Amino acid sequence: MAAERTQDRERERERSVPRIRLDLPRERRSRLLPEYDPEAFGRLSERIARFLGTGRFLVWMTLTVVVWIGWNVFAPSSLRFDEYPFIFLTLALSLQASYAAPLILLAQNRQDDRDRVNLEQDRKQNERSIADTEYLTREIAALRMGLGEVATRDWIRSELQDLIKELEERRDLFPSDEDRGSDVPDR
Length: 187
What we know:
By secondary structure, this protein is an all-alpha fold. 74% of the residues lie in helices and 0% in strands. It has 6 helices and no strands. Helix 2 packs across helix 4. It is flat, with a radius of gyration of 48 Å.
């Protein structure tokens, strides 16, 4: 009876504890902080950094500052929102600069990473090209060595001419029976 109770307790414990399977990915846990896509944020920072580096941005920024200062100098006193030392303008420009600097650095880091990957790919491609060139050089050298042993048309012609000359010399030394005359009619 006691043994059956222990077995029942073990079975209940096995049922209550989920079995961990290593062939399935874990379920995602809920997080307290919101999730963001670092690639999307990086792309956005690159777009902002690209815009900050254009002449269009400089023109707009200059126009904004000129209008700001002009409004706060020439507008009636009741409509001015930032008096002479232009503290609010200074604050706005400082805030813009404090966000622009890290965004530009982030964009530069991403560009450095891309450049590093491209450089590595170029290096590997150059190594493959060098290996291919060396292989082709060895193959051409082997073909040249092989051609050195192959009979060429000119070599065959010269050999045939030498054989013809040799045959002519033999014919002169050893004339055939037709050249000397036949002894058949004499019989």
